[in-house]
Amino acid sequence: MRADAQKNLGKIVEAAAEVLAEHGDQAPMALIARRAGVGVGTLYRRFPDRGELLAAVGEHYVRHVTERLARAEREPDAWAALRAFVAWVADPGRGALAGALAEVPEEALAARPEFVRMREEYGRAVARLVARAHAEGRLRPDAGSTEIMTLLKVFTCHPEVPDPGRYLELMLDGLEARRPG
Q1: How far, in Å, CA of 29 to CA of 27, rounded?
Q2: Of 39, 83, 143, 151, which has the fewest Cβ atoms less than 10 A away?
Q3: What 3-state DSSP class applies to 42?
Q4: 52-175: which CATH architecture?
């Protein structure tokens, strides 16, 4: 791919992520093109249909989440890193984007090998952080990766949750292991 075409591709996917976070999965393609600084024709040449664009944005999203999770794994305090990661993913902008991407058909994402690989790595990395938080005695023993992933789904796929920051803190506080004494 030519350098300018690669640059345009990156601009389109970034712009689409922003516009989808603002307007949902039915965001106008013309708005995405304008935000990317490209013509609508350029957008449609690269992404002939909305599903392909949404799948590319899904891959972009999971790449960023996986990178952030890799940084969290390098933190010395696994529970603090897990809390910070969950809060970062549940940020209203990222949550709105995840909600829009939840509408992408699974087969469109499954057809993208890099997406599948990153999503699997994402799950393994959450499991490693959870295991470390358990080993540190900071995460309730009856809470695991499933609870963390469910918590993320609640806050990323349900933007209608009122005052999400407050509810997220309450739920995270409930997942923390009780200290004796």
Answers
A1: 6
A2: 39
A3: helix
A4: Orthogonal Bundle (1.10)
